[in-house]
From TrEMBL, chain A:
Organism: Paracoccus albicereus
Domain ABC transporter: 4-245
Record-linked CDD domains: ABC_Mj1267_LivG_branched
InterPro entries: AAA+_ATPase (IPR003593), ABC_AA/LPS_Transport (IPR051120), ABC_transporter-like_ATP-bd (IPR003439), BCA_ABC_TP_C (IPR032823), P-loop_NTPase (IPR027417)
Signal peptide: none
Protein name: ABC transporter ATP-binding protein
Keyword Transmembrane helix among record annotations: no
UniProtKB/TrEMBL annotation, chain B:
UniProt keyword list: Cell membrane, Membrane, Transmembrane, Transmembrane helix
Name this protein carries in UniProt: Branched-chain amino acid ABC transporter permease
Membrane topology: Multi-pass membrane protein
Organism: Paracoccus albicereus
Transmembrane portions of the chain: 32-51, 58-78, 84-104, 111-134, 159-184, 205-226, 246-271
InterPro entries given in the database record: ABC_transp_permease (IPR001851), LivM-like (IPR043428)
Subcellular location, record wording: Cell membrane
Principal location: membrane
TrEMBL record, chain C:
Protein name: Branched-chain amino acid ABC transporter permease
Primary localization class, coarse: membrane
Keyword GTP-binding applies: no
Family the UniProt entry places it in: Belongs to the binding-protein-dependent transport system permease family. LivHM subfamily.
Subcellular location per the Swiss-Prot or TrEMBL entry: Cell membrane
Membrane topology value: Multi-pass membrane protein
InterPro entries named among the record's database cross-references: ABC_transp_permease (IPR001851), BCAA_transport_permease (IPR052157)
Residue stretches spanning the membrane: 12-31, 38-55, 61-84, 96-121, 141-161, 190-213, 225-255, 276-295
Keywords: Amino-acid transport, Cell membrane, Membrane, Transmembrane, Transmembrane helix, Transport
Coiled coil ranges: none
Pfam families cross-referenced by the UniProt entry: BPD_transp_2
């Protein structure tokens, strides 16, 4: 059974259909990339899947259950986690505390008023593990706001991982990174393959075709093709609509 | 962190030294002022909990002070003079008021939140103005201070001061624990970046509301102390000027470090006393200082204090 | 009963009109500059005091008004130049602190200049009578004149905002901040203009009530908070919202105070009704605000909270 099934999803802003009768399914364990030209509605799709934006109509089924009516934090509780295109971290917290907070969200109650949370090894250990996955362990004590851009992108990923997602939605994780930084992030994503089901939105075609098991092409709010990277690359419709070549 | 613990120890030690000092200087008025400062320090501490750590600029905290004060007056008139029972009543009443008004105010943000908390405090103000049985607009004088364990020992200004100081100390410790707890982390995180907190599975609203209720309950303790200190209650306790002065205290001491709020209360009230000794128009000078300092420091009064003290945050 | 109702309704409209004059400038400042101005109420107060002095000096209400308006306008410009201008890009907290300080300064300064005792201004001769409405019911001409003046101002504002270039920019700015600067408008000038104009409207409101209310140092505060309620109900940045909210608050407040106890008497004992009415009436507008917010957090005409 597919982990995520999106069907007949629609959203419009005024006269503009940003999501137009969209259908998509994500299989367990795969890394499913979604590509498309600017303004195709990729970020809006992530926003609707994560619950940041409401869809006008259609269904989003996660693990067999309809989630389109749930607010974002409830979807996270079910295992649907996301990263942001524009880095969104807790800038005044340390790197470790950023990730430990995400662990805390999943682990038990946060209506605990007197214990010193900074000393809770149950939270910190898992946070250190997540930091290890993205290669940020040695920056654990740094204030997050003072990290370099590439490190912030790594942290963003570690935060998402710390929520123990069953489906990870990555919104342009490589945005604004330099060559070396991007390479490191691609390695992290590669190491997650098979372990965490991932939907990846990315402009870096090189990274997409190296990482993805399947690729869907989004144009004007619709998926016009889905398949393995090779199949999609060869699809004449895709080449015409997206890669800008004549079929 | 260590610096803060040291600052806290110094401030509380200085407080504790006031009664002997007053005795030595033969100036009992010092204890009266110090008790008043302690009362406002409690309220400022309560406000800093949500303003400094939760990013909620409440312009209505005087309402909770007033609710606490009237708990003393109303229970006292009904013959219940026990301080503990009065504190309990104040905390329950203030929590209920905070729960209702907070649930509405927290649906909004920014300028709206400031205005709505101010409006609700004004509503409380008018409520007590219309309570003619308790003096209405003029307020009422209390026949005596509250009793403690059946004894009227609080009649003594010194004992009353130390009991008040004990309340401040206890609340300071509780607040310190809260901001370092799991709950406090969610509160701080929601101020830093609410969307991020949402995206890792928190709904900030519930945490902010609980913090607002805790803060309101703490501020009501200030009212209990203040009513006992002056042996008088009146709607003027919840005048919006009082809410404004509480914000001033929090900012003067540096937003978001708890002991700073206590320090800010000391500075603001001592400054008022000082200016008041020279002129009847101390408000003019206090206001000018406030405007001047805010304008002069690029990142606000808090920034100026931070630069002067060299502290972080 | 009907007559009394009509009378109180007119009083409510009159209060609403005053609140509108005060809230109009304030809501633009909030909406366009995202600026918390606590000092707006004291300008209303200064307007009233200035009128009292100028009217005594010149011996007439009209000449007093003619001097008051430009003076308040200049005061608004001066405050903008000296204080507000430096606070636009600061946090709400800093804005609260500085404008709160300003309230203390102006309130104290007013007491130094005019004393703490309440003052009154003489009513203009031509408007001092009352005219018959229906049957034996009469209504003071001056209060009707206030309503008319407020409505005319509202109409003028509506014209400026919907029909002129500057109004278009204001509307764009109030709903989508940031756009105004993208349009290449001189933001600094626009802001000064809004501030000074808003201050003049508030001063105008103060000058209007000077002959019918006691002019005292506390008059700005209650009105400021009511204006906040108006803006919250109407939606920040919306002149239309300010107008609707102001009338709503004015009418609900006035009718609640006079008819609350009467209505309650239908369900409660007379004594209890009287007591409950006195307690509830002043709280009515805040309850109204809470109800509006529960349904529409951004206010009746607000874009988004």
């Amino acid at each position: 059974m597919s982990l995520l099934v999106v069907d007949k999803l629609c959203k419009r802003y005024g006269a503009l259909k940003v999501t137009d009768d969209l259908a998509l399914s994500v299989e367990p364990g795969e890394l499913h990339a979604i590509i498309g030209p600017n303004g195709a509605g990729k970020s809006t799709l992530i926003a609707q899947l994560s619950g940041e934006a409401r869809c006008d109509s259609g269904s989003i089924r996660f693990d067999g259950e309809e989630i389109s009516g749930l607010p974002m934090h409830r979807r996270v509780a079910r295992g649907l986690s996301r990263s942001f295109q524009i880095t969104s971290i807790l800038p005044g917290f340390t790197v470790l505390e950023n990730v430990a907070t995400a662990v805390q969200a999943r682990e038990g109650s946060s209506f605990s008023f007197l214990g010193r949370v900074a000393d809770e090894s149950a939270l910190n250990d898992q946070a250190v593990t997540a930091l290890g996955r993205v290669g940020l362990t040695d920056r654990a004590g740094t204030i997050a706001g003072s990290l370099s851009h590439g490190e912030k992108r790594q942290l963003e990923l570690a935060i998402a991982l710390a929520t123990k997602p069953r489906l990870l939605l990555l919104d342009e994780p490589l945005a604004g990174t330099s060559g070396g930084e991007a390479e490191r992030l691609v390695e992290v994503m590669r190491s997650l393959k098979g372990e965490v089901t991932t939907v990846l939105i990315e402009h870096d075609m090189d990274a997409v075709f190296r990482l993805a098991d399947r690729v869907s092409v989004l144009v004007y709010g619709r998926i016009i093709a889905t398949g393995s990277p090779d199949v999609v690359r060869a699809d004449p419709q895709v080449r015409a609509a997206y890669l800008g070549e004549e079929a | 962190m260590r610096g803060r613990a040291l600052a806290a120890t110094l401030i509380f030690a200085a407080f504790a030294a006031v009664p002997p000092l007053a005795y030595w200087a033969n100036d009992p008025y010092l204890i009266v002022i110090a008790s008043r400062i302690v009362a406002f320090a409690i309220a400022a501490l309560a406000l800093d909990l949500i303003l400094g750590y939760g990013g909620m600029v409440s312009f209505g905290h005087a309402a909770f002070v007033g609710i606490g004060a009237y708990s003393v007056a109303i229970l006292g008139q009904a013959g219940i003079t026990d301080l503990m029972l009065q504190l309990l009543a104040a905390i329950v009443a203030a929590s209920a008021f905070a729960l209702v008004t907070g649930a509405i105010s927290l649906r909004t943000r920014g300028v709206y939140f400031i205005m709505i908390t101010l409006a609700f405090a004004q509503m409380a103000y008018f409520f007590f103005v219309s309570l003619s049985a308790y003096g209405g607009d003029d307020g009422m004088t209390l026949s005596s201070r509250s009793t403690l364990f059946g004894s009227d020992m609080l009649r003594d200004d010194g004992i009353f001061f130390y009991v008040s100081l004990g309340l401040l100390g206890a609340l300071f410790l509780i607040a310190t624990r809260i901001v370092g707890s799991r709950f406090g982390r969610v509160l701080r995180g929601s101020r830093e970046n609410a969307l991020r907190m949402n995206a890792i599975g928190f709904s900030p609203f519930r945490y902010q509301l609980v913090a607002y209720v805790i803060s309101g309950a703490m501020a009501s303790v200030a009212g209990v102390v203040l009513a006992n200190q002056t042996k008088f209650v009146s709607p003027a306790f919840m005048n919006w000027h009082v809410s404004g002065e509480l914000i001033v205290m929090v900012v003067l001491g540096g937003v978001g470090n708890l002991i700073g709020a206590v320090f800010g209360a000391v500075v603001a009230l001592v400054l008022q006393e000082f200016l008041g000794a020279f002129t009847d128009h101390w408000q003019l000078w206090f206001g000018l200082i406030l405007v001047g300092v805010t304008l002069a420091s690029r990142d606000g009064v808090g920034g100026l204090v931070r630069r002067l003290t060299g502290g972080k945050r | 009963m009907t007559n009394l109702f009509l009378l109180q309704l007119l009083n409510g409209v009159q209060l609403g009109i005053l609140l509108f004059l005060i809230a109009a400038g304030l809501t633009l400042v909030f909406g366009i500059m995202d600026f918390v101005n606590l000092a707006h109420g004291v300008i209303y107060m200064v307007g009233a005091y200035l009128l009292v002095s100028f009217a005594r000096m010149t011996g007439g209400y009209w000449t007093g008004l003619a001097l008051t308006l430009p003076t308040v306008l200049i005061l608004g410009l001066a405050l903008e130049l000296l204080v507000f201008r430096h606070l636009y890009d600061r946090s709400h907290l800093d804005q609260v602190l500085a404008t709160f300080g300003l309230v203390m300064v102006v309130t104290e300064a007013v007491q130094i200049i005019w004393g703490a005792a309440p003052l009154t201004a003489a009513m203009p001769e031509a408007l001092s009578g009352s005219i018959p409405l229906i049957g034996p019911l009469r209504y003071p001409v001056f209060r009707l004149a206030i309503i008319a003046a407020g409505l005319l101002t509202g109409l003028g504002l509506w014209y400026i905002i919907t029909r002129t270039r500057i109004g278009m920019r204001l509307r764009a700015g109030a709903t989508h901040r940031g756009i105004v600067s993208a349009l290449g408008v001189d933001i600094g000038k626009l802001f000064s203009l809004i501030f000074a104009f808003g201050a003049m409207l508030a001063g105008f409101a103060g000058a209007l009530v000077a002959p019918i209310l006691s002019v005292d140092p506390g008059m700005g505060e209650s009105v400021l908070i009511l204006a906040f309620v108006v803006i919250v109900i109407g939606g920040i940045g919306s002149i239309k919202g300010a107008f609707a909210g102001a009338l709503l608050v004015g009418i609900v407040d006035t009718l609640g105070r006079s008819f609350g106890p009467i209505v309650l008497r239908a369900v409660l004992e007379p004594a209890a009704a009287g007591q409950a009415g006195r307690v509830l009436a002043p709280m009515l507008v805040y309850i109204l605000m809470a109800m509006v917010l529960a349904v529409r957090p951004a206010g009746l005409f607000g874009a988004k909270a």
